[in-house]
Amino acid sequence: MKCTELLIQDHKAILRALDVLGQMANRVEEHQVLEHDDVENILRFLRSFADEYHQGKEESALFPELRRTQSAQEPALRQMLFEHDQERSLVEAIEEALFTRKGPEFVHFAHRFIDLIRSHVRKEDNILFEIVERSLTPEQDEKVVAACEKFEISPIFMAELRELEWKYMRKVA
Predict the structure, then answer these.
(1) pLDDT recorded at residue 47
(2) Reduced to 3 states, what is the DSSP secondary structure of residue 49?
(3) Per CATH, is 3-168 categorized as 1.20.120.520?
(4) What would the pLDDT profile of 106-157 be if each residue is shown by its tens digit?
(5) pLDDT in tens, 12-67
(6) What one-character-per-residue DSSP string does the chain give?
(7) Where are the domains of the chain?
């Protein structure tokens, strides 16, 4: 499996989490009460899976190898790193709004975060990963895959995501 395929699999889980966060924000907009633990769980997923696990693989395995190629000067690489920092700041803003019980701010920052991540995933899938495909040799790709496989994530995070999806994404008749 290529490194880009591994990262695209992560993107699918991250997009699922964004759907849940979006439903949570919609409920707050409709003045419905959210369970504090549910929001903490989705934020923990975003911090642990999306940031530490997924972006950790990109920042410590893929990007350093990509910098060793002629693509090191690609603006797309710098843009991805910039957006990673923006994503971390927005998660902090969502957490702050949650803990200070500021619903409108929670909704605002949740929607900004969702928009940024969806755009970021599209850029990685359609721009950055094309650069990776044409820049890395098969040996470099194998090296990145091996480094990515050293990252571990508890299956609890995916189980919690499935529970939140069931709770927030199912259609109620």
Answers:
(1) 95
(2) helix
(3) yes
(4) 999 999 999 999 999 999 999 999 999 989 999 999 999 999 999 999 999 9
(5) 999 999 999 999 999 999 999 889 999 999 999 999 999 999 999 999 999 999 98
(6) --HHHHHHHHHHHHHHHHHHHHHHHHHHHTT----HHHHHHHHHHIIIIIIIIIIHHIIIIIHHHHHTSGGGG-HHHHHHHHHHHHHHHHHHHHHHHHHTT-HHHHHHHHHHHHHHHHHHHHHIIIIIHHHHHHHS-HHHHHHHHHHHHT----HHHHHHHHHHHHHHHSPP-
(7) 3-168
> Tokens 């929001």 appear where?
39
- pLDDT at residue 75 tops 90: no
Residue among 79, 94, 98 at smallest CA distance from 47: 94
Q: Where are the beta strands (DSSP E) in 3-149?
A: none
pLDDT-derived band at 88 (thresholds 50, 70, 90) equals: very high
Report if pTM > 0.90.
yes
| Beta carbons within 8 Å of 45's beta carbon, 6+ residues apart | 17, 157, 160, 161, 164
Q: Which amino acid appears at position 15 of this protein? A: L
Continuous segment of H or E residues that includes residue 110: helix 103-123
- Separation of first and last alpha carbons in the chain: 41
The Cα 95–Cα 109 span in angstroms is 9
